[in-house]
Amino acid sequence: MANHVTMADVAREAGVSLMTVSRVVNNKGEVSEATRKRILEVIEKLGYRPSGIARSLATSRTGIIGLIVPDISNPFFADLAKGMEYVAYSESYNVFLCSTEENPQRELRALQSMAEYRVDGVILCSSRLDEKHLVDSLGFFYSAVLVNRGLESEAPSVGMVMVDDVHGGRIATHHLIDEGRKKVAFLAGPETSHSGRRRFKGYKDALNETGLPYASDLVVHCDSNVEGGYRAAKALLSSHPEVEAIFCYNDLVAVGALRACSEIGVSVPDDVSIVGFDDIMLAGLVTPSLTTCRIQREEVGKRAAEMLLEQMGGCSGKCETAVFTPELVVRNSAP
Amino acid sequence: MANHVTMADVAREAGVSLMTVSRVVNNKGEVSEATRKRILEVIEKLGYRPSGIARSLATSRTGIIGLIVPDISNPFFADLAKGMEYVAYSESYNVFLCSTEENPQRELRALQSMAEYRVDGVILCSSRLDEKHLVDSLGFFYSAVLVNRGLESEAPSVGMVMVDDVHGGRIATHHLIDEGRKKVAFLAGPETSHSGRRRFKGYKDALNETGLPYASDLVVHCDSNVEGGYRAAKALLSSHPEVEAIFCYNDLVAVGALRACSEIGVSVPDDVSIVGFDDIMLAGLVTPSLTTCRIQREEVGKRAAEMLLEQMGGCSGKCETAVFTPELVVRNSAP
DNA sequence: CTGTTAGCGCTTTCAA
DNA sequence: TTGAAAGCGCTAACAG
Questions:
Q1: Distance separating alpha carbons of residues B232 and B200, to the nearest angstrom
Q2: Which structural domains are found in chain A, ordered by start?
Q3: Of A139, A153, B71, B158, which shows the fewest CB atoms inside 10 Å?
Q4: Which nucleotide is at minimal CA–C1' distance from A29?
Q5: Strand D contacted by B116 CB (< 7 A)
């Protein structure tokens, strides 16, 4: 059962004014020890809980940071969230997390409801929205940080934490080519993914730099999970058995590709070598273990939170950008 | 930049009263087409967003459901959250997710902040709180559903969704014993875990039923993740090399045990066989693949949300309990 | 040290 | 079909 005890009830019961109770509740201003103690007792006795809603309305501060991710069951985002929450909690903010199932509609709705709820700031990860919707939505927040999603237009007080996906795509693809593989495919993840596009650019750059031809039918979009990678790899390998290597959008997709290979009797890394992206825990656990591009996910999350807190703290003008560089982790799927 | 456009601004600009704007915003009550259109235009032009805070204060409804889990990076809870959110969103509730890092203090804080924010209902998963703190905290909510955590005392309007862990522990342990293993250890997970205690009961029941002796030094607590399982298994196997089988608190722990075995040259399942719990995706992906007890996680999440919505809907008295029965999935780690 | 007076932005009566 | 008044529970800014 919920409580309907209000501050007024406490004040009446304790025989003081609202303000005195408020001071005690917020540890603000001078209150004599005697009354403080009495009020505390009444609060306890009545089971009073202050209303965050009312307080927020009065102060126009919620103490809440919104965090929006495409899919919380992707360890990449779960780890990011962990880093971000760590910082937020240590500054006594609470975190309002929404997972949008890779669905731009849901993303829009999450953004909207956070705007309506007047969160103090929002961290938006790997947004799948187009530039216009994104900029419009961001306009409703005092401060915001974008993770892994650039902005073409100038947006005021929007921080950015980026991963150098182009670089990641390059080194991953180069690694495959250095092994002597000529036919390198790319399982590109969701079409809406901006990091996917940048990884694709890195992939193409590497092909160019080594004089290998680019073949658009070796690039296949897929869902950003094991199932998506499995399906895409199966289709790809059956229509293009000449493929010698696959660069995957992320580790989940790569694990799916691994399964597909094992199922159709293609040996990894002998017949086909595979590189993933992210270096989630799973990457080191599958057989063969996955060569991948490591991203310091918790650090990315922490940095995003710090940036947001700085922004909320004051100087709202500055629009910082932090960049994390992925590094290649060589394991057995592409030695 | 945030907006400070209020309903009053819209009313003034449109030359109508507050109420008329409110009616348009909420699609409630009769408003002439002409004024409705005009108001909508002004809203668009001014970039007005209603304040959820103010609305909640006036209506004492937030449209938010709180979800608290010990660790969102555990796929078990991520999947649960997915199922739960699916139902919540389809009823146009928003979900406020908090991950407590297995820390009872943080759990208490999450509960408290959700109570202060007057969420319409809360779903609390695998609570690590003791009975008293738990019952006290629950008292602040209109409605609540507990997942995977029983309550000894009677609590009004608290629904429960349980997994039959005792059964799971029994069948897992029996499976190991049926293979001919006599020395069966249990990696028990966190001491604070209630499902761990129930799985332990199942484990002991199975030993009893087959006349095997129970040895307390074959039961080791550990963190609920791969690292925890790895460490515990390593310690266990070095002090008790006679162990022939390990039942693990969950799949993450089991995967850690798998790694430990492989590292110290113990073959699974030849020397030691291993059974996990949950059947997360990872279970089918590691080598050897994991025998485990499957829990229909998304279904559990959905059921919890449905139960909460029913409770919020009306008849606050009834205190339902749903039980899900885990089933054994036999793979290679314990054939 | 304590209390009073105004709101915060919205919705809920009730009236026009 | 529209509006005015009151209040949701709290805090800011002054008084005393």
A1: 16
A2: 2-59 (1.10.260.40), 64-164+297-325 (3.40.50.2300), 165-295 (3.40.50.2300)
A3: A153
A4: C1
A5: no
